[in-house]
Design goal:
Mean pLDDT: 93
Order of helices and strands: HH
Low-confidence stretches: none
Largest sheet: none
Distance between the termini: 86 Å
Shape: rod-shaped
Number of strands: 0
């Protein structure tokens, strides 16, 4: 049926006999994966920046509340 041990030998033989066809096929299958990875990385970076901005905003708010309470006590 399908011999797992013979498959790597077949791939190496194919790459040796037809390198351009091999690299073209590999690139056709990998390019969409690279594009998806780039898009997801970009979205993750945006989400991290938004979360960081929100945390800074909350921290500033808490600092202002603490200053106001300190002024009230004085």
């Amino acid at each position: 049926m399908f011999d797992i041990k013979a498959w790597p030998a077949y791939v190496v033989e194919w790459a040796a006999k037809d390198p351009w066809g091999f690299f073209t096929t590999v690139n056709v299958f990998l390019t969409p994966l690279f594009l998806a990875s780039a898009v997801l990385s970009w979205k993750l970076a945006e989400m991290m920046e938004a979360r960081e901005k929100e945390q800074k905003k909350k921290q500033k708010y808490q600092e202002n509340i603490a200053k106001a309470e300190q002024l009230k006590m004085d």
